[in-house]
Amino acid sequence: MERNITTLGIVLHSQRWGQANRRLKVLSVDLGIIDVVSYGAQKSHKAVKAEVFCDGHFFLYHNPVKGDYTLKDLKSIAGHEELREDLALNYTGLFFCEILLKVHGAESGREYALLSKALDLLTFAAERRALILIQYIHRLSDVLGIRVSLDRCPCCDRLYDTDEIVYFSSVFGSQCCEQCANLERTLILPPGARRYLTVTMAMEFEEAVGVDLNEAALKRIKAYMLGYAQYFCPSQLATLASGLL
Ligand SMILES: [Zn+2]
User: What is the domain extent for residue 139?
Assistant: First the structure.
């Protein structure tokens, strides 16, 4: 295996490692989520700066014996530093990273593209934070291959009526009609929310984020999507439990 590797990626997580180093979790297009040690990052001003949310080209050295990666250099495309200056934006970005750490699958390139765009939108369209949050989860469910069309029940294949409320089945792990549902009390999609999610499915991320919702609908759909995100994550999302989203 090549010892020097360059890959496009985003820092998802960073923690102290020993006296002066940091250990990063990087979502990389080519290698999936990898552990990268940044030596001297804790103290030296000359060390490579690679903070959480940083999106760029990572120059790595792979140690085939230890199996880990060392950060040699980083050519930043976007640092997204602005997100750290606002509590809600920071937590939203951390939430995006935390979900990927929990559900990361085979589609590293698509996960990277989604997170990269989401962090850019949070930085440049901060006032649309709730819509970015909704669309991120909506799009991630597609990347993970668990998104279903919201015009018919995937369990019994019946078309929904225009004003039908859609429920959820934990057996199928998807939205479904009332008869096929087994989670009647949670994850309920009213017709307006279902229409919004259907219409925005076909749009690009930034276009979908431009679609306005009234305050009540925004609140309801956001709560639904956060519940849905927690549903498809294998363990408790700490950023969600913070109540800051
Ligand atoms: Zn059904």
Answer: 82-150+189-238
